[in-house]
Amino acid sequence: MKVSVSLPADDIDFVDHYARDRGTTRSAVMHEAVQMLRRRDLAMDYEAANDEWVSSGEAEIWNAVTGDGLR
User: Fold this and answer.
1) Per the database record, which ranges form the Ribbon-helix-helix protein CopG domain (predicted)?
2) Using CB atoms within 10 A of its CB, is residue 37 exposed (0-12), middle (13-18) or buried (19+)?
3) Are 18 and 29 in contact (CB under 8 A)?
4) pTM over cut 0.85
5) Residues 6+ apart with CB under 8 A from 18
């Protein structure tokens, strides 16, 4: 899908330099940037879920029994 975006000149310069150094295209660089944002957001979601799990007390219960049967 073709999309038009507006970016400041220094961002375009950065994207072009990044693409040139890696032998790729602006589109590939933008695709990589979007993937990185998705991974970052996913990591933040996992961190929030873990914090919620710990604060609920469930982590403490789980940790009390994780070693059962491993002797």
Assistant:
1) 2-39
2) exposed
3) yes
4) no
5) 29
